[in-house]
Amino acid sequence: MTFWLVMLFVFLAMLSPIMWLRPSRRDRRLGLLRQHARQTGVAVRFAKPPLHAPPGGLVSYRWRYPQAQPGPLFLLVRDDYASEALKPFVKGWRWRIEPLRPLSSEAQQCLEQALAALPEDALVLESERIHLTLWWGESLDVAGFGDCQASLATARDALSGPSPSGDTPKAPR
C-alpha cells in the first residue's frame, strides 16, 4: 500500500511542473488577440512607452501608413497620465506633441471617433511618419478589438497625407 502511495506522490511531483507551464486563460486570450492583430496587418511590439512613469504591461499596436502618404507627427496622452499644462484635444485626451499643421476636419473627426472607441487602458496614441501607434494594456478580446481596430484603421487612412514635398507620386513609366 505504501508503495502505491509513494508512486502516486512521485507521479504528481512529476506532473506539477507541467501544469505550471500551461498558459493561463489570460495568456491564451492575449495570444489569440495578438495573432488576430498580426493577421489583420497590425504590428504588435514590446517597447518602452512614451510616458514618464508608465504602468507595467503596456504593449504597442502599430498601423502602418502608406509609404507614399506619411502620417503627421503627434502624441496624445490620456488625461490621467498627462500634465495639466498640456493642451486638451477632446474629453479625456491631451496633446503632448501637437501636429505642426492643423488636421483636416475629416481627419480630426475620424481621430475623435477613434479615441472615443478606445478602451480605458489605452493611454497613448502616437503618430509618426511611418506608424499610428496605440499603447494599451490589451484589455479587449478579439471581438472587442475588432471595433477598436476598425476605427483606428479609418483614422489612419484619414490622417495619411500627401508626401512631405507636397508632390503627388508619379506613375512609373
Give the key terms.
7 strands, 173 residues, single chain, 7-stranded antiparallel β-sheet
Strand content: 15-25%
What is the chain-wise order of helices and strands?
Answer: HHEEEEEHEEH
What is the helix fraction of residues, given as a range? 25-40%
Number of strands: 7
Question: Sheet with the most strands?
Answer: 7 strands, antiparallel
The residue ranges in which pLDDT falls below 50 over 5 or more consecutive positions are 163-173
Span between termini = 87 Å
Keywords: Membrane, Transmembrane, Transmembrane helix
Protein name: Preprotein translocase subunit YajC
Organism: Modicisalibacter muralis
Transmembrane segments: 6-22
Helix-strand layout with pairing:
Layout: H1 2-21, H2 25-39, E1 43-45, E2 59-64, E3 74-78, E4 87-90, E5 93-97, H3 105-117, E6 122-127, E7 131-136, H4 142-159
Antiparallel strand pairs: 1-2, 2-7, 3-5, 3-6, 4-5, 6-7
Helix pairs in contact: 3-4
Polypeptide structure, described:
It is a single chain. Helices cover 38% and strands 20% of the residues. The chain has 173 residues and is an alpha+beta fold. It has a domain at 42-48 and 57-165. The protein has a 7-stranded antiparallel beta sheet. Strand 6 and strand 7 form a beta hairpin. Helix 3 runs antiparallel to helix 4. The protein is elongated. Keywords: Membrane, Transmembrane, Transmembrane helix. The chain crosses the membrane at residues 6-22. It comes from Modicisalibacter muralis.
